[in-house]
Design a protein that fits this description.
The complex is a heterodimer of chains A (about 240) and B (about 90). With about 240 residues, chain A is α/β, with parallel strands linked by helices. Chain A has helices at about 20-30, 50-60, 80-95, 115-120, 135-150, 155-175, 180-185, 190-225, 230-240; strands spanning about 5-10, 35, 60-65, 105-110, 125-130. Chain B has a 5-stranded mixed sheet with strand order 3-2-1-4-5, covered by helices on one side. The interface of A and B includes residues 16, 19, 134, 163 and 168 of A.
Chain lengths: ~240, ~90
């Protein structure tokens, strides 16, 4: 897969983070980029860290989420995987050659400044906060992609409503195919990515056709109003003749 | 793809509850409460024989009422009057 469009996703894959992860994945795919996750090859026997290093080297972009640097219960350990992989990515850019020097990354966190207590070395880095809010996650990832690429897919609300439509479609598809509520909620992330890619491709094709039709209708209406103002007015008021 | 006139109810970033059709970017109407929004969406869906999807804060579907001919608990078969609800999600969203 091409380096220029790959986005390495370094974030928690637990059930709680799913509400943030899925909108992030959708936003990435919506911008014609390819999310790459460590669990995308679940049947692979290779060492996890080798796979992660390979993904980092293969991805121009990466998103590192540091929401889990703080434990939420007294007997819970804070998670070190995300800062560790961020470190590898930073090292890859700093010490790498050629295309690796052009790597870009976004660091996200649930709360402002919380991560700095655990990882003060990143003070001064550009970090976006999503407050564990799915819509906010779409907003910050969309803005970052727009700043890094020439992509212009519209605003975050447009992407958010498309994400809701996607969820409705997948819900129907899975229910019709005999999946229960638990299975629908726990679809593997790599499968969700495939579903999003297929849906967004069709969605954009349909959207482009509709936009073309609207443009043609407007253009025809303008021509009509120039050629025969009374006829055009009649058409607008009464519908097509 | 879902049908064009299916209705979606979700809380918008201004805190209000929005009702919109599939494919639309803008809400057709906004309400102070989710109950009012659901009622409005159901009225439209009953008239157009489509469905109402209620979305959680994470964008996922938390429940669906179908008023399409042939709708049942799992979306196919004979029609159930007044809409149907598939099983609710359990656990953390």
């Amino acid at each position: 897969m091409p380096f220029e469009t790959n986005v390495f996703i370094n974030c928690p894959f637990d059930a709680d983070f799913k509400k943030i992860l899925r909108p992030i994945l959708f936003t990435i795919i919506y911008h014609d980029l390819k999310p790459r996750i460590a669990t995308e090859r679940i049947d692979s026997g290779e060492a996890r860290i080798s796979k992660i290093i390979e993904l980092i080297k293969d991805s121009k972009y990466s998103i590192h989420d540091l929401s889990r640097v703080k434990s939420t219960a007294s007997d819970e350990m804070f998670r070190l995987n995300m800062p560790y992989e961020l470190g590898i990515d930073v090292g890859c850019r700093e010490f790498g050659r050629g295309k690796l020097t052009g790597k870009k990354y976004l660091i996200t966190a649930a709360e402002q400044f919380e991560y700095q207590k655990a990882l003060s070395d990143i003070a001064g880095s550009d970090i976006s906060v999503h407050h564990n809010d799915a819509q906010e996650a779409v907003r910050i990832v969309r803005q970052w992609i727009e700043n890094q690429t020439t992509s212009n897919e519209g605003g975050s609300h447009k992407i958010w409503t498309a994400f809701q439509d996607f969820n409705a479609y997948i819900y129907d598809e899975m229910v019709d195919n005999g999946f229960d509520a638990h299975e629908i909620e726990n679809v593997h992330t790599s499968k969700v990515i495939q579903q999003m890619e297929a849906w967004i491709k069709i969605y954009k094709t349909k959207k482009a056709l509709t936009d073309d039709l609207v443009r043609t209708a407007r253009s025809t209406s303008r021509k009509l109003s120039t050629m025969a103002p009374n006829l055009a007015a009649t058409t607008v008021l009464t519908g097509p003749l | 793809m879902t049908r064009k006139r299916d209705q979606h109810v979700a809380q918008s970033s201004d805190g209000k509850w929005a009702v919109r059709s599939t494919g639309a970017e803008r809400a057709s109407k906004k309400f102070e409460s989710s109950a009012q929004a659901v009622m409005h969406a159901q009225t439209i869906a009953k008239q157009s024989h489509t469905s109402v999807y209620i979305h959680g804060a994470d964008g996922q579907v938390v429940s669906k009422n179908s008023y399409a001919p042939g709708a049942t608990l799992f979306g196919k078969g004979t029609m159930v009057t007044g809409g149907v609800k598939p099983p609710q999600f359990k656990g953390k969203k």
